[in-house]
Amino acid sequence: MPDSSQLLEEFGMRIEVVPVSKLKPYLNNPNEHDEESYSAISASISEYGFAAPIVVDKDYEIIAGHGRLEGAIRNGLEKVIVIVASDLDKVKSRALRIADNLTQK
């Protein structure tokens, strides 16, 4: 049976631990967090740890997880877990951002 890394690669993904400074927020992110949301995310990370990875494209631009990045920074984390969706081009990355934000509401 293939290991988990091989299985992820079949879906065009890989998991990495990266410095928060490597991540690039998407400037036109359709989802805007308010202070209450950031505080809740930060509190969740404090309580449960960094349990949900940030999804990025091959250039480490965030697809999903802008709030998690801010929560990690507020908690003093220097590194975070990311899923790199390496097979997505810019158009598919943008579509995934929109779909992710629509399903979060």
Which value, in Å, is the CA radius of gyration?
Answer: 14 Å
- Average pLDDT reading: 87
Largest sheet: 4 strands, mixed
Number of strand segments:
4
Side by side, the strands of the main sheet go 1-4-2-3
Work out the strand percent.
Answer: 15-25%
CA-to-CA gap between the ends?
Answer: 37 Å
Number of helices: 4
The assigned structural class equals: alpha+beta
User: Which consecutive residue ranges, at least 5 long each, have pLDDT under 50?
Assistant: none
Shape: globular
User: What is the succession of H and E elements?
Assistant: HEHEEHEH
What this model shows, in words?
The chain is an alpha+beta fold and 105 residues long. The protein is built from four helices and four strands, in the order H-E-H-E-E-H-E-H. The protein has helices at 4-10, 35-48, 66-74, 90-103, and strands spanning 13-19, 54-57, 62-64, 79-85. Strands 1-4-2-3 form a four-stranded mixed sheet. The radius of gyration is 14 Å and the shape is globular.
Write a compact overview of the structure shown:
By secondary structure, this protein is an alpha+beta fold.
Secondary-structure map:
Layout: H1 4-10, E1 13-19, H2 35-48, E2 54-57, E3 62-64, H3 66-74, E4 79-85, H4 90-103
Parallel strand pairs: 2-4
Antiparallel strand pairs: 1-4, 2-3
Helix pairs in contact: 2-3
